[in-house]
Amino acid sequence: LGNMYFLSTWVAVVLGKLKGRKIIMWTHGYIKEEKNAKGFIRSLFYRLADDLLVYGQMAKDILISRGFDASKIKVVYNSLDYHYQLCIRNNSPVDKLIDFKNVGIPAFGFIGRLTKQKKLNILIESLNLLHAKGHLCNLLIIGDGDALTGLQALVNKYNLNDYVCFYGSCYDEATIYSLFKQIRLIVSPGEVGLTGIHAMTYGIPVLTHDRFDRQMPEFECIKPGVTGDFFDYNNPIESLTDLLQVWFKKTNFDEIKEKCYQVIDDHYNPYNQMHIINSVVTKVYAVLMPLTLLNFDFN
Question: Which site from 124, 220, 228, 294 is most exposed, i.e. has the minimal number of CB atoms within 10 Å?
């Protein structure tokens, strides 16, 4: 793991270089520009590697801008239990698990730990603003955490109890699949992370904020207007409200679903990751083979 904060990694890399080993680091790389001492040390650390595997294109672009060889940087993406989720996507029936008190109106949702870092109050504020503008909709929140009580209080404050469902935590994929099929969008007000991969695997578009230096690499799965969108980080409530209105008006649900599938099926799955990693390891093996062939145990 290419983490410069682990002293043991520095030692292992130096020992490996002294022994003529090729070094591959799997790392976040730069998630933002760092024009300071930390950025300089990070650059020194990454230059010890012969090849870098990074989670996103933005990390690769920053490394290239700092003089790194593009051919030695591979975007390896990220993934969940893709094979199992694909089986559910293709074979599981959709069960109606919740009954909103107000039917026939669109719904959006969130899944994950309910923490202050996730800024979930934005969901309630946007829902309230939508209703004030005459655009009724429902909200499904899947998860549990320290912020639950505060969110419930905010829902009570705005008299939105009939439009919000706190489902609680859920770890059963078939159940999550059915819950996702009852909403139009997943919204992640804080960093999106693997939530985006989870939603798109089941064909659900994702909305999150546009401060990419405060995002996780998985934000890159979102293609604006196609598999989701980005609201204004500095004006989140009104910006998200406007985007939700746009997305609720869309009628090409099957096309959106297929576009979400395509992003995951092409990039964010372990089979693609395995192919990328093997291409790097094979390159390293081809370099090492002439030096090690006499001692290689083919058994």
Answer: 294
Per the CB < 8 A criterion, the answer to whether 194 and 220 are in contact is no
- pLDDT band at residue 299 under the 50/70/90 scheme: very low
Helices of type H across 66-116: 82-91
Which ranges of 56-205 does DSSP label H, i.e. alpha helix? 57-65, 82-91, 121-132, 148-157, 173-180, 194-201
Tokens (6 digits) for 207: 């909305």
DSSP 295: G
CB of 49 within 8 A of CB of 1? no
Amino acid at 242: D
Count the Cβ atoms, other than its own, within 10 Å of residue 92.
16
**CB-side neighbour CA atoms (13 Å) of 171:** 2
pTM above 0.85, yes or no: yes
Dist CA 1 CA 116 (whole Å): 29
Separation CA 64–CA 238 (nearest Å): 36
pLDDT at 35: 87
pLDDT tens track for 30-60? 988 888 999 999 999 999 999 999 999 999 9
For 266, the token pair is: 């092409």
- The β-bridge partners of 166 are 141
Contact status, residue 151 vs residue 114, Cβ threshold 8 Å: yes
Structure tokens at 280: 């790097």
Quote the CA–CA distance of 106 and 185 in Å, as a whole number: 9
Is the pLDDT assigned to residue 290 strictly greater than 90?
no
**Residue 108, C-beta contacts closer than 8 angstroms, at least 6 positions apart:** 123, 137, 138, 139, 140, 183, 184, 185, 186, 187, 207, 244
